[in-house]
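step: validate -> pass
step: tokenize input -> pass
step: predict -> running
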Amino acid sequence: MKGQAKDIFRKYGTAGILIVLFIFFSTQSDSFLSVNNILNLLRQTSITGIISVGMMIVMLTGGIDLSVSAIVAISAMVCSACMVNLNINMYLSVLFALAAGLAAGLVNGALVTYIKIPPLIATLGTQTAIRGLAYIMTNGYTIYGFPKAFNYLGKGYVGVIPVPVIIMVIVLIVGWYAVNHTKFGRYLYAIGGNGEASRLSGINTNLRLIIAYVISGGLAALAGVVELSRLNSGQPNAGEGYEMSAITAVVLGGISVSGGEGKFSGVVFGILIMGILSSGLVMMNISTYYQQLIKGLVLLFAVSIDQILKLNLFSKSKRVRS
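step: predict -> pass
step: emit ->
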């Protein structure tokens, strides 16, 4: 009976948490269910959602990318500097910003695969270095004065749907297809499950790992450009804390911290949970200090559940073998 309960939680637990949070916050604020608030919630969630897809791809391999928050900042700085300081075309500026994110992801991938630095240390180091570079580029000053057309990316609408939400949905669809219906997705699970066995079976694990980190860096840069457009100012401290929100959403969605396990649909629920939690706490006028505490506890809860379920499955497999 206990095994059945754990199986049910593994399959439907994240959806259940989402429903409970939705009901709770809707009872705490009359405006929570308003159309404007729902659209605003989705707009705010879009940044974390875009980053979380890249984070999921990395974590499926058994890695992690702590540098995504700094990549958000450096991409925003590159895009801002190109448009304002160098008078470069808006579209080229966005491409340069995305290229910066891809390059950062390439560095992360090379450090992890060829120099064999543990992902936690490698991406923590690049996070610090990239954040420092963002401050050096501007001497800590904010950049503003973008073309009006640039605002559309972060503030525009298609019908009643905010453009950032449409971008997030496109990223989610492409990510879902890549993870579930391509060889690359199957290789990610294989590498996360057993990297050495994957290598011996003929999979170019180094190449796939580098691609995973490049994708994570590129999506973080995309999120940085979208946020830059939404805020209409380039700030070197942009994106702080986004890595923890993305990791929490991914782990809460059922992706194992050791890699090789989890479903994309769960990550979507995890993203929505983090969005509802952030929006609901703000609407309840909860202090930012308590918000940080609650989000930290949610991450610990998600990782604890992952470990408990994993230990349970491991003990069951041992009993079966015996």
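step: describe -> Confidence is low (pLDDT under 50) at residues 317-322.
step: cleanup -> pass
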